[in-house]
Amino acid sequence: MAYSNQSGPVRTRRIASGSSGASSSADKRAPKREGCGSQGGRRAGAAGRTRAGARSAADERMLLVDGIEVRLSRKRVKNLNLRIARDGSHVDVSAPSWVSEDEVRDFVRRKAAWIESHLAQAVDTPMARAAKATPEEVAAWREVVSACVPALIAAWEPIMGVRAGKIAYRNMTSRWGSCQPATGRICINVRLALYPPECLEYVVVHELCHLLERGHGPMFHQLMDAFMPDWKQRRAKLR
Q1: What is the mean pLDDT of residues 108-125?
Q2: Residue 80: DSSP 8-state
Q3: In this structure, what are the phi and psi dihedrals at residue 168, rounded to the nearest 5 degrees?
Q4: pLDDT of residue 10
């Protein structure tokens, strides 16, 4: 499970290189990112970032398929992958370079019933409400979250043997929290005010764990299992 809050249910169509294939299957994998705030690795130079940005823009295209907004991305993948946006505003499709737009449109049309069903469900989710929130609502979320987080951190620091740095609160669309292990700075998404309290506690413990383990490998999961055995159940409520 990833730590991002961008994508919802997934449909995957397996295809062979250079052909459209025939089979499709449900794949309820979660979104791919589970970030700790620190990017890690060496940053590319300005020229490299410019080239990467140009490739990204060239590989993305907006399609309208029978009234369904589709954001098509060309990626180094073997399958056609369709994801429902968490706020119900569109669907994301990733496709290999050799798959034509007509094949993508056909894939979307054949999954139209599944898409409409999940888009309808997404409209009633906290993420959909958050996408339409007023500044006053966001301010109210910030007030709730900022009132709860310091007490949670104070309770968990001695248990985990860590010390957090500066705490920030932001209205984020792509992640629930972030951590900079080098400074101890932790940022918490104010949208967590829309979810059960145990979800906020999970995110706090998750970010504090990054002060012990930077990445999301086996050691990180072992730490989460030790400190919060039901963390996966809590995380599931954020989907």
Answers
A1: 83
A2: E
A3: -125, 160
A4: 57
Same domain, residue pair 13 and 107: yes
Both structure tokens of 195? 């979810």
The confidence score (pLDDT) of residue 205 equals 98
Residue the block writes with tokens 């990112």:
33
Average pLDDT taken over every residue of the chain: 80
**Hey, what amino acid is at 88?**
G
Question: In what order do the strands lie in the sheet containing 177-180?
Answer: 167-170, 185-189, 177-180
Angle at 81 between CA 79 and CA 87, to 5 degrees: 170
Asked if the structure places residue 82 within a domain, the reply is yes
Sorting pLDDT into bands at 50, 70 and 90, what band is 21? very low
Domain, as residue range, for 174: 135-236
Whether residue 79 contacts residue 3, with contact meaning beta carbons closer than 8 Å, is answered with: no
Tokens of 211: 């002060």
Question: How is residue 210 written in tokens?
Answer: 């990054």
For residue 2, being part of any structural domain is answered with no
Q: What are the pLDDT digits (tens) for 169-189?
A: 999 988 999 999 999 999 999
Residue 18 backbone class (left: φ over 0; alpha: ψ -120 to 50; beta: rest): left
Q: Is residue 129 part of a domain?
A: no
79 φ, ψ (degrees, to nearest 5): -120, 160
Q: How far is 143 from 141, CA to CA, in rounded Å?
A: 5
What the block records as the tokens of 15 is 């295809």
